[in-house]
Specification:
Layout lengths: L1 E4 L10 E5 L5 E6 L27 E3 L5 H4 L2 H6 L5 E4 L1 H28 L4 H7 L6 H8 L2 E3 L6 E4 L2 E7 L7 E9 L2 E7 L22 E5 L13 H15 L3 E5 L5 H15 L6 E5 L1 H12 L6 H10 L8 E3 L3 H7 L6 E5 L9 H8 L6 E4 L8 H7 L4 E4 L2 E4 L3 E4 L9 H8 L9 E5 L3 H13 L5 E2 L5 E4 L1
Parallel strand pairs: 3-4, 4-5, 5-6, 10-11, 11-20, 12-15, 12-16, 13-14, 13-15, 16-19, 20-21
Antiparallel strand pairs: 1-2, 1-22, 2-3, 7-8, 8-9, 9-10, 17-18
């Protein structure tokens, strides 16, 4: 049995891991897109979109719906994969939304390419490789098979998989694979993205049973969450300053799937329990609205606090003065809304999406506040805003002075911090765990986490490089 790390190796995005069993049965765990700007998908491979032969993959296991874990699945089918994708039911529905959204973006990009190069077929065939469309998404999704949490599912003779709640995102899972190897059953666990305890809406990450091999993320391997206040306390303070004292606009870049639902839920709780006057809230993302419906559908999978709040109020995300914006025209009009308001818009990293327009129109406004609530890659505008000391930004080829108030909080970060990661790892016996592989983190975070794990007595902690294979 062997394992090869094709993505998220000493970097954060593009998760792809192949587990090859002794009978040459191959399982791909996650099939994500690269989002950090460090490298686009490699289309120079003799196999097409991947550094491996997609037609030889027998099964895909998907930890959760985020594009850096799911975004290349349609291309996997285009390159010859004919098997099934196993995931939880919420992951299937959220992946449906996110992959179709990606297909729409791809269609626009193809049109731009065709327009720029006057339909040069030779050039287009190179530059549009990997840009799947709606048809390819539909074909891929027809092969998704939903699996319940904590259900031991047999996928082949002497081969089982179990999905455990991971927090992080609705439907997100840790995955444990049990397979026969050299005459004995062995367990290999894949953490996916590890959530944090007491996170809005989501359940705490569930500890895993003892395994032989553990592959785990390390995004926050060198840092801890800095906000100690509750989300309600922080939001109340920020809203009062931005929208009451200054009578201005509060702009919140937020991912449409996950972060927006947490924001709406917390605003609902704030208005319900803290006697805060409901200020107009504009949710500027059709994808966010569709995702919110999925969260409502699967409210039985949310945490106890959220379910109790729903029982008391009969709603999770709907409250007075909440408006969903559908059209681009309505979106642009809100950027100059005359009354104090809150605008929640994607993308969360300020890397494309409608939020760029809102920031462009408000970055020079001293009465505007921009609140960053999540992670942003170094190549994004969000990263510059998170730094807090930027004086000028270039948006849509315009050099703009930063006069708006910049704020950041991390109470909505869906990743567990260093303490959460350590707790997750320490649920495993150091004597029984044969290898621990770190993925999905930048090199500094990963190295720091590796050193701590080694000091605590974990043997054989590895930081796989891209395309590196290990015998298990």
């Amino acid at each position: 049995m062997r394992i090869t790390f094709y993505g998220a190796a000493q970097k954060v995005t593009g998760s792809k891991i192949v587990l090859e069993l002794e009978d040459e049965y191959k399982i791909l765990i996650d099939c994500g897109s690269v989002l950090d700007g460090s490298k686009t998908e490699d289309h120079s491979s003799p196999y097409g979109n991947f550094p491996f032969d997609a037609s030889l993959i027998n099964l895909v296991l998907l930890t959760h719906a985020h594009i850096d874990h799911s975004g290349q699945i349609p291309n996997l089918y285009l390159d010859g994969f004919e098997g099934q994708v196993l995931c939880t039911s919420p992951t299937l529905e959220l992946a449906d939304l996110l992959l179709h959204d990606s297909a729409s973006l791809n269609a626009r990009q193809i049109k731009r390419i065709e327009k720029s190069y006057k339909r040069s077929k030779k050039w287009k065939s190179i530059e549009t490789q990997g840009l799947y469309l709606r048809k390819q998404v539909d074909e891929a999704l027809s092969n998704f098979v939903p699996i319940s949490f904590n259900h031991r599912f047999k996928f082949k003779e002497n081969g089982y998989v179990t999905f455990y709640p991971a927090g992080h995102l609705l439907g997100a899972a840790h995955i444990v694979v049990e397979v026969m190897d050299k005459g004995e059953m062995k367990k290999i666990a894949f953490s996916g993205d590890i959530g944090r305890k007491n996170f809005p809406l989501l359940v705490d990450p569930e500890p895993l049973p003892q395994v032989d091999y553990l592959v785990m993320e390390s995004t926050y391997g060198n840092r801890k969450h800095y906000n100690t206040e509750t989300p309600e306390e922080l939001l109340k303070e920020i809203i009062e300053e931005a929208c009451v004292n200054k009578s201005g606009r509060l702009i919140v870049p937020a991912f449409s799937v996950g972060r927006t639902q947490c924001m709406l839920y917390m605003l609902n709780r704030l208005y319900e329990n803290y006697n805060v006057k409901p200020i107009k809230v504009f949710t500027d993302s059709p994808l966010a609205r569709a995702s919110t419906k999925v969260y409502e559908k699967y409210k039985s999978l949310l945490n106890k606090e959220a379910k109790e709040f729903y029982e008391e109020t009969d709603t999770l995300f709907d409250f007075e003065n909440l408006y969903y914006l559908e059209s681009d025209l309505a979106s642009k009009a809100v950027s100059n809304h005359s009354e104090p308001c809150i605008i929640i818009s994607s993308s969360g990293m300020v890397k494309g999406g409608r939020v760029e327009h809102h920031i462009e129109k408000n970055i020079e406004n001293t009465y505007a506040t921009i609140l960053m609530i999540g992670y942003a890659t170094e190549d994004s505008l969000g990263s510059k805003l998170l730094s807090g000391d930027v004086k000028e930004l270039k948006i849509n080829n315009k050099n703009l002075q930063v006069r708006a108030n910049l704020k950041k909080i991390d109470v909505f970060s869906g990743h567990g911090d260093l303490d959460d990661l350590l707790n997750f790892a320490e649920n495993q016996s150091k004597q029984k765990l044969k290898n621990l592989f770190l993925v999905h983190g930048d090199k500094d975070a990963m190295l720091n986490f590796k050193n701590i794990l080694t000091e605590k007595g974990f043997p054989n902690v590895e930081m796989p490089k891209e395309n590196q294979t290990f015998e298990l």
